[in-house]
Amino acid sequence: MEETRSLNFIEEFIEEDIANGKHGGRVHTRFPPEPNGYLHIGHAKAICLNFEIAKKYGGKTNLRFDDTNPATEETEYVNAIKADIRWLGYDWEDREYYASDYFGQLYEYALDLVRKGLAYVDDSTAEEIAVQKGTPAEPGKESPYRSRSVEENVDLFTRMKDGEFPDGSRVLRVKVDLASPNMHMRDPVIYRIKRQHHHRTGDTWCIYPMYDFAHGQSDSIEGITHSLCSLEFIHHRPLYDWFISQLGIFPSRQIEFARMNVTYMITSKRRLMQLVNEGLVTGWDDARMPTISGLRRRGYPAAAIRTFCDKVGIAKRDNWIEIELLESCVRNELNQTALRRMAVLDPIKLVISNYPQGQTELLPSENNPEDETSGHRDMPFSREIYIEREDFMIDPPKKYFRLSPGATVRLKSAYIITCERAVVNESTGEMEEIICTYYPDSKSGSDTSGIKAKGTLHWVNAPTAVKGEIRMYDRLFTTENPLAEGVDFLSKVNLESLKVLNNVVLEPALAEARVGEGFQFLRQGYFTLDRDSTPEHLVFNQTVSLKEGWTNKE
Hints:
By secondary structure, this protein is an alpha/beta fold. The protein has 3 domains: 21-257, 3-Layer(aba) Sandwich (Rossmann fold); 269-339 and 468-544, CATH 2.40.240.10; 344-458, CATH 2.40.240.10. 25% of the residues lie in helices and 24% in strands. It has helices at 9-19, 41-56, 75-88, 103-115, 126-132, 150-161, 211-222, 237-247, 269-277, 292-298, 302-312, 323-337; strands spanning 28-31, 60-65, 96-98, 119-122, 171-174, 189-193, 207-209, 226-230, 253-257, 260-262, 319-321, 339-341, 343-344, 347-352, 360-366, 376-382, 384-388, 408-411, 416-424, 431-438, 455-457, 460-461, 466-473, 498-506, 518-521, 525-529, 538-544.
């Protein structure tokens, strides 16, 4: 019987609105990213929340780009954001909008406030305005330009739009409450002059609305019933509601939820851009990055990220989520879906002295024991194979169940072998190969040897091995909270977060892998084929280890 999940507080608000017949029971949400960088794991939570809430109540979700700051926004980011949302499994259908679509309407809204005597053109500098606003302990003071007449303000604002004044020389502010304990209510700026080429509107506009003015009004224009925002915007809500009241427009309801903070990750596009610009990572989609594109490149399945967001839930207070929970979701998903393959990361040759010279046989090996429909593939096996160097010791400790002189182990999906000796280079002291014998009647699936082997090793057939590269990853940061107060987050970057293995040998079936396809390398972990691969040189990213590192601590 399926467990019934209790409602989160956002669902409670929505069901209350539906019960009261608000908006005719309609539910319409939106995801409003600013196209000034790539999306990160925190955005994944907001995406899942908005689309899943609308889906649950038979509603719709808009994708709206908050493109009101042309200095930082690019079409590249727009395209990347759309690709990330689609990859996560969500579709906004034909509802793709931009705040820039509404520049004309937003200008008219601002002009309406001016005509009502609620907005004025201010010639003060940014520094002077900051002083005028006062402090949380002291009320603000009126700007000397606050008493301008409606006629003068209409004239000046119109001339601002027409490009008559230089950048930064004037702003449009609204008259709200200079004594309000909420600093956002102390005559906020809603328009500034900025001659900057816009990625969609070109040079049509030289004035641009501020976020607090564009965001809420865009919600109203689109008829958004429930505007779901992260907790940092809770102090903006009174101003949001003030605009709705003064303009008499559609009353969207803003509801705040806690943003998602994940240990060893940062969710700040500005700081992520620093990592990119300073060359500490190879780009926004570096597999160590907490961006959605980085997680995708590393091999995290979209389903695992959705599961993670669901498990985290919706909170009213900011909290920290252990990265191990995310890795557990990835591991659980891949355990069900990833094909099993063999890869030897640090190979040493093993020669089976009594195996017939020149003979090769194909041995069946299961593709995924968790998926009965996955079948098996045939692995070539011959006299010479590779095993992991660490799977052999000349003088092993007690309870060592791998290979050593005189020890017996099973080769996965193959035969039982017994080690005879190791060949050591006399000049370097390095082991060059291991000599073993096998038991012909010990083949997996038809073993009649009666021999017991406590250990099982993975291997790769030497003549058919495919050479490859594996990128092993550690945490990008050395501390759980890289953005802790008083800490330079760049000083917490883990300079050992990437280790490249160049001498890897892979079973030949991996030559057919597709970019982005994930596998479980037996005894090694989960790995995904990277886009840097070529047919001659396969490159795999370590996705997550086999070890479960998270437990429910409730």
